[in-house]
Amino acid sequence: MSLNRPILLVLLVVLLLIGGLRHWLPEEQKAVSHDRILMGTVVTISALAGNGHDLEEAVQAAFSEMSRVEKLMSPHQVGSDLQHLAAPTSSVTVSSETAAVLQQALAISATSSGAFDPTLGGLKDLWDIEGEHPRVPTQTEIAQVLSHAGWQKISVQGQSVHKDDLLTQIDLGGIAKGYAIDRAIAVLQEHGVTLASVNAGGDIRLLGQRPDRPWRIGIQHPRQPQALIATLEMQSGAVVTSGDYERFFEEDGKRYHHLFDPRSGYPGRLCQSVTITAPDATTADALATAVFILGPQAGQDLLKQFPQAAAIIIAADGTALVTSDDLERRLTWQ
Amino acid sequence: MAIKDVWRRMTLLDRFLVGLLICAGVLAQIWLGSRPVGATVVVERDGRVVFQAPLDTPRQIAVDGPLGSTEILIEQGLVRIIASPCPHKVCMGMGAIQRTGQVIACVPNHLLIRIDGPPEETTAEHAYDLLSR
Amino acid sequence: MPMTSSAVNPQRLHQSRRSIFLALFIALAVVLHTMEALLPSPAPWFRLGFANILALSALFLFGSRAAWTVNLSRIAVGSLLLGNIFSPGFLLSLSGGILSTTLMTGSRAVFGKKIGPVGVSVLGAAGHATGQMIMASLVLLRHPGVWQVFPIFLLFAVAAGIANGIAADLLIELLRNHRSFQPSSLGENP
User: Fold this and answer.
1) Tell me, what's the ipTM?
2) Assigned superfamily of B40-116
3) Do C162 and B18 touch (CB under 8 A)?
């Protein structure tokens, strides 16, 4: 039987060729994009390119990470750090992550003179702004709740959070989403992704620079739901918008939204929307809330302390203010 | 010459079957290929697909979630939520979607609606890659 | 007492031949199955199905049960080796394999001598393609648009079926002449 030698040799060569080809010619990657409902909104993660790694796996890992952060920092999740912090004890130990995010929140509170404040949990519960029966509380109720709020009542040492007032309710809502987005980007990077975007209900962070052109970010018009007010060109980084149109309820013909002014206990009235660009989403998220409360002038002053950040502020009367020339150059008004 | 060898190794029935299957393939191509794959509306609840329909056929459907029934309207190539049992009706305010990849959702009712389909031309045709709101 | 070499029980001889050759066929089928997975391919599950050559040979030499044995074992072992057991790829292999083997053994039963390896092979290939399509559209992708690729898939399968059928025909001829035995005279179920 002349079956053996030549054929076996050919077979071996073919196998080697196939193996070699597969190794040195990686299959062309197709971009991967998925949506999931997380943190009370639709989160879209798109991985467009990477170092030959599995993009699908990277995106799933990024979602898992965001879910983990949500479980850690949500006041509604049983066993979360935030739930522990709600207990009426003066000292609570939390994870190093929560401690770090809280420290960052307190730093921004200090710099913004309290416009950003992570102790508004009680106020949010009072208004039931995220619940099924939101309502306008009385002045007395608001004053009562505000008496226990105040970022100065909180201090963090290592992983230990100290509350001066036992009834202070910490809420990281104004910064946790940004942190989750930053963590998602980090996980994508760990998986070798080089070009991607994470969009959590309009809070965005971009990874890498597009080869052909800059990223184009549309900015929602605060008063026309189907329209843009501008498009923004970005090389990379985070874009977070806080607006009075995102989450609100109406009572007696007046609109009450979810961005509360810690000084009055009522929703901030100085802006319609604020869009912050910054290198990371945690900072952008916190600054968006702070600038919204502060209004155009004070907000612009605050941003002087954050040279890497810039803002598009749409004031209550609809006038627009852009806080940096570089940002202005990259904007196309619609 | 190789063709003749192949032919010789086939019985009458073999040749008939091959011819039959080739015809079946051609007919299938004519029948299926004439309907281009259009965009599809996909509704997911908790990450699982619960409903699909082509975007080009007008219809109104109700999809159930933990809070109750959400009404979705497909007409003129647009999809929008027209009724939902959620407290803030954010979903209804999301407006209509029509392009592949766009998404609207009723978050409290755990429903996500997206458009699947042939990938569109580059975003140069559209105004932006992502929307910040 | 001389060695009773001439009094070997033909049935036992056939049975051991069958076991040995089936084991060999399964091993070869697994090799072909996994090698094929390495080949670059236009679509994820477009495979030429070379492993079917062995199942065809088993069918014509040893009967229907042998064909089932070869194909099911090949799918199981192949998937274990490729690491995709219980994954979509495995389900597609399985559904394709079951429909394919059913058509192959069924056609042999219905048509007997009138159908040759090429005919059985193209039916098997068409069955494999259809089985995969059905699994993909009903269970995996659940998107009716999946059927778009079916005509191309089918024509591709027919071509591969012809090639595999010829190869099987050659192999069967080779083996029959080499070992001179009558597989179907021992009452195997066709």
Assistant:
1) 0.84
2) N-utilization substance G protein NusG, insert domain (2.60.320.10)
3) yes
